[in-house]
Specification:
About 10% of the residues lie in helices and about 60% in strands. It is mostly beta strands and about 60 residues long. The protein has a 4-stranded antiparallel sheet with strand order 1-2-3-4. The two termini are about 20 Å apart.
Amino acid sequence: MQQVYDNLGKFKAVEKGEDQYGTKFEVNMMIHGPNGKTKNVLTAWKVTWLTSIYVKDKG
């Protein structure tokens, strides 16, 4: 999780609309795993809190 927070300023946040809870954003970023591999990861945010995260390229 620390990598996610550290990377927020390094990758572009894209606004994805708004709902009753606030403005939604997505941030695609590269994360280095404990196995040494680097993967493209999509993170979804509502203003300042993380709502979901998943690896985009599984392999």
